[in-house]
Amino acid sequence: MKAVLEARGITKRFSGVLANDRVDLDLGEGEIHALLGENGAGKSTLMNILYGLVRPDEGELRRSGRPVSLRSPSDAIALGIGMVHQHFMLIPVFTVAENIVLGAEPVRRGLLDRGSASAEVRGLSARYGLDVDPDARVEDLPVGVQQRVEILKALYRKAEILILDEPTAVLTPQEVDELFRVLRGLTSRGVSVLFITHKLREVLAVADRVTVMRAGKVVGAAIPAETDERGLAAMMVGREVVLQVSKAPARPKAVVLEVERLGVAGRRGSGGDAVRDVSFSVRAGEILGIAGVQGNGQTELVEAVTGLSPARDGRVLLRGRDVTGALPRALIERGVSHVPEDRQRHGLVLSYSVADNLVLCTYHRAPFAVRGVLRDDAREENARRLIKAYDIRAPGPGTPVSALSGGNQQKVILAREMSRPVELLVASQPTRGVDVGSIEHIHREIVAARDAGAAVLLVSAELDEILALSDRIAVMYRGGLVAMRDAGAVSRTELGMLMAGVLPGEAAPAPGAGEEAAPASAAGGAEA
Amino acid sequence: MRDKLNRLFAPLLLPALSVFTAMVLGGVLIALAGGNPLEAYAGMLEGAFGSPRAVSETLVWATPYILAGLSVSLAFRGGLFNIGAEGQLAFGALSAAWAGHWLPRLVGGGLPAALHVPLTLLLGALAGGLWAAVPGWIKARAGGHEVISTIMLNYVALNVVSFLLNGPMKDPTAANVLSRTPLIDESARVPALVDGFRLHWGFPLALLAAALVGWVLQRTAFGFEIRTAGQSPDAARYAGVRVGRTVIVTMALSGGLAGVAGAIEVSALHHRHELGFSQGYGFDAIAIALLGKAHPGGTVLAALLFSAMRSGATRMQYLTQVPIDVISVIQALILLFVAADTLVRRIYRVRARGERLVLTRGWGG
To answer: CATH number of the domain at A3-237, please?
Structure first.
């Protein structure tokens, strides 16, 4: 196979830290090549080097055998290298065609030629089998289609090499399958794809070859057909990894959390409600997992349950007591622990030390404060104990939490939230951006909380996580609970369908449409 | 040990370099104007510290600088940019003038100094605090940015004060043509610290206030709330802090400090509220708080530096004919370098580190 893009001995240091250490990589013509590694392994740095966003300290890049130097993304584009970022770079109020031609617009007499822009995009999408309406406004499109627009944007700029950064993070399982189909279609037309991910399943599903990075180095390469998840995980983490969470069957006791017909208003300007008519309950000693693609109301649901934002309708009951609209402090006092979705925004004060962050919710009471005066010794002691118990990799209690890796930051939050009596644990995206080693640890802690008698509400966009941990699974779609199942009685495929809004006995919604699906019709059956 | 020294002095590095750079540039300016920079600075130093009287005058200047600087610093630590110290200070002074003169007449009879002095200062604090609570309330309840509202409320405060000093509170003595209140009673006056000098007990009081602010911020649960709300309002809300209430209380405390600054000027120095006595303490306080990195100790040091420059400037002009205005230029340069510390880091190749100071946030932030 001919290499279209090669990296040889790429080294990059950021203030002394080796982000890339003599990295070699070659992308063959017409192949899908997965770059696998944990967060912080150096994938993003390498990708940014390949796209001209970062210049390497040492090493060489070759495009079809010819040495090249990339000073900026425009150099990369000129060499036929295109990139699809994890966070889309689209202007929501522009049409698909406008977004695609932006920066390289067809012009007639100094004016934008909408007609030919639209026609060109239509031709392009037909040629590559990427179905989109050029005249649709981007903000009206589902995320999966927006991603297609990003890909078209690169192809419009004559990309022969596509770099995709974690492209599946925001997609439903069905959209992921669709993306993979698109990518295979592209490779059959000679496009080469470099696919960056930390998800083993995807590598096995789509890649022709895989290169594994760890701690800035390439630690191995493999053909997916010749390996399995366990082998890849071991390569990625550097040791054997327990992929299955071992847990005993749940023994649910009294109801701890009851949510009755909860409604939460959407953000200003979004129109519509973020959460509509949601009812469920969680018992002590069980984990209720809420599955769903990001942005279907899970964030708002959690915020309403934990007192961070007000509910519009309905009630939240904790051990039978109405706590609707209670402030976070009152809920904390009643035994609610919360691992928030956005740990850097809500869960931590980044400039504070580990010790301060470990008492973020309890700083005001004994032993951390006596009559309003802080007790440094108690706080230090608490930090030392928790750092040890939760295996937080920090030099000491005084280390700023911003200096910790994502996984260790999450452990700080978990340690804090579990270190007081827990009646209800609300864990939202608990392992997002966390390394595999820490994921194991966090999963064990969540199960331990359940076994110690806490009710656990787990919200995650990772289907694997939901399936691994939950005793019961609810699915959220467009603000409503569309299904509630026992974990043993539901398949991955069925969950995927439900997450996409396809209710049992219905046809799949047409892709690309912004239609209003019937929400929440199954919510009444949630108590089964 | 080395570590400890490092921790103590490392935060001083950038401000010190900023001051140094500003002084060098100021020196160039003096030279361009035909003066000798070294002589000018020597003159300033002599004017600030050359005699017991000079030291006394420097510390008299330092008193309102420290208190108003603490006011702005405390707000900074709570994530709030209080530009309204000048107005809060004016109301504090007005309230003290009222307490010093009208209060005894209202209650019918003189008050003992042991009661009258504290009462005068307390009412000054109260007036400044209540006035500052208004922008706090606007921010917490309606999302109005405090930078705008405190600036605007300055105009309201200064004009209300001007009206009162020319009208209802004007000294009614027949000979008086100035916009000022009558003298306050002897019993309302903060006494001098040393006989024969203007230096008064307000200065140690200001130092005490700095210690108190530091203690509250670092050592109390309430201070933890202020700092957390300042560093990350979202995390504070998550942690159970009532952020809106904290914003209001922080602004009130900040205004209270500015109010005391004004009250002490009235009670210890001028013994009346005279229009324009403040010479912009409340605005200089912003520069002082920035230079002091919103740290109480740093604020005291910055206030001493600014007051030394201000009080030494006259002597400098007298000795070397270098105009006083140079001092304003140097202070502005200091502020510039402190605010744009990337510039100073670049010049001296100093790496970034430590707790970041949130100066101001966007709307609704």
So the answer is: 3.40.50.300
Please, are residues A291 and A460 in contact by the beta-carbon 8 Å criterion? yes
- Contacts with B235 from chain A: Cβ below 8 Å: 345-349, 360
Q: Give domain limits for chain A.
A: 3-237, 244-335+422-528, 344-420
Pick from B62, B119, B68: which is nearest to B90 by CA? B68
Please, how many CA atoms are within 13 Å of residue A292, restricted to the half-sphere of its CB?
26
ipTM of the prediction: 0.87
Confidence check: pLDDT of B359 > 70: no
Counted across chains A and B, CB pairs separated by less than 8 A come out at 67
Alpha helices by DSSP H, listed for A207-296, are 229-237
CA distance B234 to chain A (A): 5
Q: Which residue of B has its CA nearest to A308?
A: B238
- pLDDT tens for A445-493 read 999 999 999 999 999 988 889 999 999 999 999 899 999 999 988 988 8
CATH of the domain spanning A244-335+422-528, picked from 3.40.50.300, 3.40.50.1220, 3.30.210.10, 3.40.50.970: 3.40.50.300
- Domains identified in chain B and CATH numbers: 1-35+322-355 (no CATH), 52-320 (1.10.3470)
SS3 labels along A412-466:
HHHHHHHCCCCCEEEEECCCCCCCHHHHHHHHHHHHHHHHCCCEEEEECCCHHHH
Average pLDDT score over residue span B178-184: 93
Nearest to A84 by CA among A190, A191, A219: A191
Average pLDDT, chain B: 91
Q: Tokens 């130093």 label which residue?
A: B45
Q: Where are the alpha helices (DSSP H) in A208-327?
A: 229-237, 298-305
pLDDT tens profile A228-285: 888 888 888 777 666 677 888 889 999 999 999 999 988 655 567 889 999 999 999 9
Fold matches, A3-237 and A244-335+422-528: yes
Chain B positions in Cβ-Cβ contact with residue A401 (cut-off 8 Å): none
Chain A residue whose CA is closest to B241? A329
User: What average pLDDT does this structure show over B88-112?
Assistant: 94
In whole angstroms, give the CA distance from residue A1 to residue A30. 9
Q: Is A378 on the interface with B (CB under 8 A)?
A: no
